[in-house]
C-alpha cells in the first residue's frame, strides 16, 4: 500500500472517530455537569437518541438528576438502558478533570 493511500485511510479513520457520539455515560455526566452550573451561560447539551429515549420519561430524568454518586448513576442507567447499549467505564481521574463541578460535590 502506498504512503499516500495509507495517509488517506488514516485521515478517513480520524474523521470517523471524531464523528462518533460520546458514550451514554459521558452524555449523562455532561448533562448533570451543566445542570449544576451556577450561571446560565453554559452550552446546550447534545444528547443521542438513546439518551433522549431514556429522558422522555420524566421519572427517569428525575432519578438521574437526583443520583447521589457515580455508582448510583451507573445502576440507574443500566436499569433504564432498554437497548442494552454497552456502557464504557472511565478512570476516575479522567472523569474528575472532565467534570469539575461533579467532582467538587464528591459525585465522582
What does this structure look like?
The chain is an all-alpha fold. It has 7 helices and no strands. It has helices at residues 3-19, 24-35, 49-55, 58-65, 70-80, 92-98, 100-104. The longest helix is centred in the N-terminal third of the chain and has 17 residues, at 3-19. The radius of gyration is 17 Å and the shape is globular. The termini are far apart. The relative contact order is 0.15. Residues 13-21 have low confidence and may be disordered.
Count of strand segments:
0
Strand content: under 5%
Low-confidence stretches: 13-21
Average of the residue pLDDT scores: 76
Largest sheet: none
Residues in helices, as a percent range: 55-70%
In sequence order, what are the helices and strands, one letter per element?
Answer: HHHHHHH
Q: Mind telling me the C-alpha Rg?
A: 17 Å
Supply database-style keywords.
108 residues; mainly alpha
Short description:
The chain has helices spanning 3-19, 24-35, 49-55, 58-65, 70-80, 92-98, 100-104. The protein is mostly helical and 108 residues long. It is globular.
Fold blueprint:
Layout: H1 3-19, H2 24-35, H3 49-55, H4 58-65, H5 70-80, H6 92-98, H7 100-104
